[in-house]
Structures are given as structure tokens and as C-alpha cells.
Amino acid sequence: MAQTAAASYKRRKQYSPGFVIWTIVKYASLIFFAFLAVLPIVSCVITAFKTDAEYKSTNVMTLPKSWLNFDNFVKAFTKANMLVAFRNSLIVLVVVLAVSIIIGTQLAYVLNRFKFPGNSLIRNAFTFAALLPAVAMQVAVYEIMVNLNFVNTLYGYIIMMCGTDVISIYIFIQYFENLPVSLDESAYLDGASYFTIYRKILLPLLKPAIVTSIILKGANTYNEYYCAQLYLQDKTRLCTVATSLYTFTGPLGSQYNLICAGVIISLLPALIVFIIFQNQIYSGVAAGAVKG
User: Fold this and answer.
1) Burial label, 182 (beta-carbon count in 10 A; 0-12, 13-18, 19+)
2) How far apart are CA 206 and CA 175, in angstroms?
3) For a surface tag, which of 177, 213, 220, 291 has the fewest beta carbons within 10 Å of its beta carbon?
4) Separation between Cα atoms, residue 25 and residue 227, nearest integer Å
5) For 120-172, how does the pLDDT look when each residue is reduced to its tens digit (9 = 90+)?
6) How does pLDDT run across 65-79, given as a tens digit for each residue?
7) pTM (2 decimals)?
8) How far is it, in rounded angstroms, from Cα 201 to Cα 186?
9) Three-state DSSP class for 169?
């Protein structure tokens, strides 16, 4: 009887005016915001296939006459020197991710597993550093880069970008809190050193947190424009993917059809990586987001 009454109440609730209105508003808002998210991508794809004459004489949503016109992609790839840009971005991305994860996990290991004077002070300092706007610190950073002769060098830019992300540190600390200390104690009693415990026991268990950190830090590094434009001044050999797209901008106007073609080319590597590793990415982010 109770189950029948509950089912009857659920059916009445589903057909009530308030429930119907709320359902319509909910799905209408989802469709609206999904449309807003997809619209720039659609307009970018349409513009990338237009010739200069088509772009100047039509609006952004007018379809191109031919979808087989790949001249814009060839021009964008060659004139923007995107082969060199992809090479530099790949070098920066691999080195920055490797160094940041190693430093971040080791720092989180020390802050979580060892209690010493100044532990909380260091954590609060990281929180305070995260609140400071990056642009406000660029004067001091630029002075340091100039004094160390790091300006206009790829290795100097890499060293600057290797600064471990504060958010990644807190992700690692949170995940360390979910790993029992008994793992460390049992390994230590068996004769393992602290570094062996970190490298062979704890680090493999941090895979979900590492995947989350790679996504956040990798996207930020791949799309970084301000510092690359400021410190990598030789655009012929030190350009990155983000700075190469600005080849087609200038005081007399911008070639947006070539810019859109370059944007699509720059998105392809990230899209391919996502398609190949989407199962690992989804499982890593889901596991890294759960606490306890």
C-alpha cells in the first residue's frame, strides 16, 4: 500500500503545473547556455573556410561557398611558423609538467607527512601567494629574468613556468590526507627510506591527483600568452602556439579567417590527446575529486 501511494504521489507530482514549468525552464536554460558555448566554435569553423572576399562581404554565420578550401589552413601553418611553435610548446609543456609534478608531489609529501615548525606558515604563504595577481608581480619577475639573462631564451621561459601551481599543491596535499600513514610506517619498519616510500609506495597512488594536475597545469601552459609574448621576443625561433596566432594581427586590420584556421590547427593536438586518453582522464578526475 505504501509503495502504491508513493508511486501515485510521484505521478501526480510529475504532471503538476509547477513541476512542468520547472522542467521546461531547466531544459531551456541548459539548451541556451549550451548554444552560447558552441556558437563561438561554430563561427570559428565557418570563418576558417572562407576566402578573404567571402569574409569581407558576409557575416560570421554565413556558410562558405566551399568546405574543401584548405588554403587558409596552409597559409596559417606556414606564415605563422606553426611547426616551430608546436615544437617549442611541446618542449615547454613536457618539461614544465614533469618538473611541476615532481616538485609539487614532494612538497605536498613533506608538508603532509612531516610536522615541523613553520609547516602552517608555509601553507599560509602559498595561500597568500595564490591571492596575489600575477600581473602585479611582473615588474619584479621581469627584473629577475633580466638579471639572470633569461629573457629571449626558451630555457629561461621554461624555468619561470616551472613554478609549481598552488592549486596542484593543495590537490596533492588533500590526496595525501586520504592515504593512511600506516603505509609509511610499515615500509619504514621494513627498512625503506623516506624517498623510497615516496617514490615506490605513495607516488603510484597519486595517479588520480596527478591526472587532475596535468589537466589544469597543461591547459594553462599550452594556452599561456602574456609571458610568452613578453619574454620570448624572437618570434621567428621562439614562438609558441599562443603567440604564433598573432602573426595575422596588425594596426591595419586582422585576418580573422587565417586566425580561425590557426585556432583550429592549434586545437587539433589537444583534441587528439583527449580522444586517446579520455578514459584515463575521466577516471583520474573523478577519483581525484573524491575525498575520503
Assistant:
1) exposed
2) 7
3) 291
4) 43
5) 888 888 878 777 777 778 888 889 899 999 999 999 999 988 876 788 888 88
6) 888 888 889 988 888
7) 0.80
8) 11
9) helix
